[in-house]
Amino acid sequence: MAGSGLELVTPHGPAGVAVLRFHESTRKETLERFGLHEVPPGSVHLVRPSLDGEVLDEGLLVACPDGSLELHVHGSPALVERLLVGEPSARQSSAGLSLEAAALARVPEAPCSAGARLLLDQGRGHLRRSLVEILARADASQATNLLDHWRLQRFWLKPVRVVLVGEVNAGKSTLFNLMIGEEQALTSSEEGTTRDAVQGRGSLGPWPVEWIDTAGERDDAPLAVERAGQEQARMAAAGADLVLRLLPMDGGQSNHPSPSLGSSLPSPPEVILRSRGEQASARRPSPDAGVALDVLDDPQGARAAVARCVLEALGLPGDWTRTSGQAALYDKSQAEALAAFLGGDSSPLQALLDISD
Q: What's the pLDDT tens digit per position in 83-99?
């Protein structure tokens, strides 16, 4: 599509990687549009293309020897379409909509049925009625209740993001395939098999989960593409809700520090798992060395153990439900407005209610 400044050069449809080429005539404008910069010829750079402030993906910006410029991203058809068309998502285009209209606009992107039902309820006006009561009565307890539920309900609208990290052959891809229920990631005893962040959707009880398998950590990666994959793994882990670090069953320790979102932001919580992996010893670790998994010989037990770790680490109940017809927050801006109200400033909350269809 000429208007986007990018052209898809790999086949259409789902794929591991999609390659998009920049149109030479609009190259500078397109780079700026996605928050990217020109790179030297013959170089490869890990980038995070964004649009209107939203990071779309982590990929590679490749300056080819012939002078052309390519963007290599995950081959999700939805992502590729977004890059080609460049239109705002349903969430972005909801700016200026009423609470009801904005909720209904987000129903198609709900990751689970519980999230869709929550949004449909707010489309019928339940959140508006609750916020009107909070303002009219200066009801701090009702505001606090909505915020407490938001801490959990937000994961019905944006899946829990769990990133698997660890050294090569720690068993990350084997565990990843187990948790999503299909063979999506390649597994092999050869070091460096996983060189890209592979994503897959699964669920733990009522909670949708986005699992991300990453390149193995090692200090002497021989290929630039593997080193780029390891940098991509660090970026994915820094944006996770939870990091699961797989270490070998023989009690070895990781030499790689936990990822950080920046000096002013906390690192995501991390849980250590001890796995047989593809080559690791089957010797059991000491009880305080991490949760022991045997994905190969006891996959059901391993899956149950990982599920417990994830839910406990994030404080998510395994059987939590909500009553149909209740008010619920469905956007971070609403939570921030309620927090401001509890702090004595009701203007952001009033602004949400002032928008009507």
A: 887 644 444 445 578 99
